[in-house]
Specification:
Order of helices and strands: HHEEHEEEHEHEHHEHEHEHEHE
Number of helices: 11
Number of strands: 12
CATH topology of the largest domain: TIM Barrel
CATH superfamily of the largest domain: Aldolase class I
Helix content: 40-55%
Oligomer: single chain
Structural class: alpha/beta
CATH class of the largest domain: Alpha Beta
Shape: elongated
CATH architecture of the largest domain: Alpha-Beta Barrel
């Protein structure tokens, strides 16, 4: 299972809390809840899915009040049924409510990505295809969103422009063609993993002659992908990309490609519906005197 750098988590959570609380803080809770009131609340899944983001949720409460107790009732990567409990939090009621939205935003967003990834992974079970993410992530949240993909059973493509070469159509247009782009990249960064995007079988043949590590089949038809697998015959790994949905992914996988990448996982997957509900009243009703 992937892990998150605690320093990155804390930095992101502190920024999110500052955005939500501003300078005055949670004026609603201060106005309505006694300073010494306590509360216990549970995070509950309102739809079935895969959990991701617990470290960020827990950190939100710790930053607000280190005395708040956060109890994980499952782990990131676990499946949760509708109505299932994910975590329990207890402590000062104002602190619990001040951290609530930031914790839910991270947990719901990342669990949505993990759940969507898991659905694609399930759909291609029994084939050789591996589900990958892309760089189509929310600015500033890439590490967390890619972490959620791994929680859902997928794998990470490159993290940025720095850790692998991926020659795309615009690079090819400026470089003067498929072969010249690959040769230039090999000369500049020998030994660095090299992938090139092609949009036709003719470009595939040109690319294979230069021995790339991976060839991305961009928006190809299923018939062309099958032909590409046959023509490649193991000389390079093949990645399918474009128009990948839950309805199409199995058919794509059955062509025999090695990887299927989906930007939808991180740019459009719906958040998992998760709620935080107080189960112990902040202050019991006072008896009449």
């Amino acid at each position: 299972m992937a892990s998150l750098d605690p320093r990155l988590v804390e930095s992101a959570v502190r920024a999110a809390l500052a955005e939500d609380l501003g300078e005055p803080g949670d004026i609603t809770s201060v106005a309505t809840i006694p300073a010494d009131a306590t509360a216990t609340a549970t995070f509950g899944a309102r739809k079935a899915g895969v959990v991701a983001g617990l470290p960020l949720a827990e950190t939100a409460f710790r930053v607000i009040d280190p005395a708040v107790v956060f109890e994980r009732l499952c782990s990131d990567g676990d499946r949760v049924a509708a109505g299932g409990e994910i975590a329990r939090v207890s402590g000062n009621a104002r602190a619990v409510l001040a951290a609530e939205r930031v914790a839910l935003n991270y947990l719901s967003r990342l669990s949505g990505i993990a759940s969507a990834t898991h659905a694609l992974v399930d759909a291609v079970a029994g084939t050789r295809a591996v589900i990958l993410d892309t760089r189509k992530t929310t600015p500033g949240l890439r590490a967390f969103e890619k972490y959620a993909v791994v929680c859902g059973g997928g794998r990470n493509h490159r993290f940025g422009l720095y850790d692998a070469i991926l020659i795309k159509d615009n690079h090819i247009a400026v470089a003067g063609g498929v072969a010249s782009a690959i040769r230039a990249a090999r000369a500049h960064a020998p030994g660095v993993p090299l992938e090139i995007e092609v949009g036709s079988l003719a470009e595939l043949e040109e690319a294979l002659a230069e021995k790339p590590d991976i060839v991305m089949l961009d928006n190809m038809s299923v018939a062309d992908m099958k032909a590409a697998v046959g023509r490649t015959a193991g000389r390079a790994k093949l990645e399918a990309s474009g128009n990948v949905t839950l309805a199409t992914v199995k058919q794509i996988a059955e062509t025999g490609v090695d990887y299927i990448s989906s930007g939808w996982l991180t740019h459009s997957a719906p958040a998992l519906d998760i709620g935080l509900d107080v189960v112990v009243s902040p202050r019991p009703p006072s008896s009449a005197r």
